[in-house]
Write a structure and sequence with these properties.
Largest sheet: 2 strands, parallel
Helix content: 55-70%
Number of helices: 5
Radius of gyration: 16 Å
Order of helices and strands: HEHHEHH
CATH superfamily: Nucleotide-binding domain of ferredoxin-NADP reductase (FNR) module
GO molecular function: flavin adenine dinucleotide binding; FMN binding; oxidoreductase activity
Number of domains: 1
CATH topology: Rossmann fold
Keywords: Flavoprotein
Structural class: alpha+beta
Oligomer: single chain
CATH architecture: 3-Layer(aba) Sandwich
Protein name: Ferredoxin-NADP reductase (FNR) nucleotide-binding domain
């Protein structure tokens, strides 16, 4: 499966991540980093730079939100005027 993802990225695919802001974006970025590292034989640092380049080129986009269950664990002073 990682080869297919890598091939899609090489062919110009755009990645959109949508979901909870607590773990989903970092989990997806981590998984993509592993794929890039595995498929290129490069280090995690090189993979990270490649993924940052995807972000800069607007080919990696995150639309994450704070869901109610996540918000309950955040200190009120962090949320400010937002009421959960």
């Amino acid at each position: 499966m990682s080869k297919k993802v890598w091939d899609l990225l090489c062919d110009g695919a755009v990645v959109y991540v949508a979901g909870s802001s607590t773990e989903m974006p970092s989990d997806v970025m981590s998984a993509l980093g592993e794929i890039v590292s595995e498929e290129t034989g490069g280090s995690k640092e090189v993979a990270s730079r490649r993924l940052k380049a995807l972000e800069k080129a607007q080919r990696y986009n995150v639309e994450a939100c704070l869901v109610y269950e996540d918000a309950k664990s955040i200190a009120p002073e962090v949320l400010g005027d937002l009421r959960v």
